[in-house]
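hiii, so i know i said id send this last week but things got crazy w the move. better late than never?? heres the sequnce for the chain we talked about at the cafe, plus the structure i predicted for it. fair warning i was half asleep when i ran it
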Amino acid sequence: MTHTPIQRRRPTTLKDIASEIGMSVSTVSRALADNPAISQDTRDTVREAAQRLRYRPNNQAASLRKQRTNIIGVAIPDIENPFFATLASAIQQSARAKGFSILLGNTEENPELLAKSIEMFANQRVDGMIVVPHDEAQEIFEDAVDEGIPIVAVDRRLSIPTVPSVVSDPKPGFAAAMDALLQNPNATIGFLAGPQDTSTGLERFKVMQQLAHDRGVELHIEHGGYNQRDGYAGTVAMIEAGVNAIIGGDAMLTMGAIQALCERNITVGRDCAVVGFDELPMFLYHNPPLSTIDQQVSLMGKEAFELLEEMLSGQHVPASKVLPTIMHDRGSTTLA
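okay and structure toks below
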């Protein structure tokens, strides 16, 4: 006689409750924890749904989370991008000074690879994560929050209220760059914009549009990914359109711009003015030294680790830390 195997009911998760009542996972989590920031009506709604769906907290997972490994996961989109390499190094230095090791995930701006990195970190029972997120990988972060893993977003924001972020404010640097270029009466300004499916790419694009509007300036914009290839192609298009003053949207886009100009024997600081993004040593060795917009990347990494450390010790942390960008005006902003 054969027996039909008993099908075990999958445990209800915070995500199930959130989907049932149309709220975010973070709101559900805070409501069940009786967070006073959540209204009583919302808490009652969440608890009723949790009871109806027979939700049981994963106490075993919570217990495991309390056992420290002194390892943190760090996910960055491109290890070949000097900005992200410097960011990871700054996080590692801060972590090492406090007795932590890091696991590094290079996600190549690929949401699936980012999700695999987050899963790998969770399986290795890291104490927490510092990540450069991607808008298309929101769900995997909600799962990690559901599991009680502390997360800090760096360079880009996540739309999860319980995940704090350390980011830069591009406006001060871009404003100073545009004003420096406009000192040239014949300047026609172009902007190499980053990907619009990242918070940084979208924010920098909107800031540049607003700055140009406020100054009554027509702005030529070329969109691309954060890579040298798209910076090169965008610069070629700008040259053909008569642009003679370029602002890069990130380090790799800036490197592509320099390559395109050099190949065409267009002299920076004479035939074309250029302001790069990110303060990289290689930009200082260019002739003339490149004017740059500095995100204070080392400080960004240090602040991100300190936020995570505060979360691990149970302290209340701010929703975000915003570092002002600084424009370093050198010899590349002039036109003959």
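btw The longest strand covers residues 71-76. thought thatd interest u
miss u guys!!
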